[in-house]
Amino acid sequence: MNRPILLMLLLALSGCASPTARYPSLLPRAIELRDDSEPVRTVPDAAPDAALDTKIAELQAALAESNATFAAARTRAEPLTEAARGAAIGSDAWLNAQAALSGLDGARGQTLATLADIDRLAIDRAQAGLPPYPKLTMALEAGSAQADRQAASINTLQRQLPEQ
User: Fold this and answer.
1) Percent with pLDDT over 90 in the chain
2) Which of 66, 75, 102, 163 lies most in the core, judged by the most C-beta atoms within 10 Å?
């Protein structure tokens, strides 16, 4: 009686021990072991460029000048927008505030024009395949921050006026 059970057990186990040649291996293939990540590329340092440094200095001076112009225009616009706060649309106070805000937009336009010139220099360098120039990057960031501050200032003053 034990023999038939033992025989059945041996037959069942022999099915598990069949040759594995007809089944693929579950080990990783060569293609699965390769590294497909991007290679690390070092960015070369930008060589000093005296002509570019001169141009950046000129553009930074233009940014400073446009910032001073904007500050003066804001100083003129603040009391006018304050006076127009409760005024009716189309009143003299409201029109004076609108004119002052227009002057602020013009001063901000100088900043944006200078910023566009800085951006053009950066684009030209990139198109030429040259590495980023640190002074140019800093000037671009400073100009962008200045333009953002000026836009926020204009929006703050504009919100004080009655809507059209």
Assistant:
1) 46
2) 66
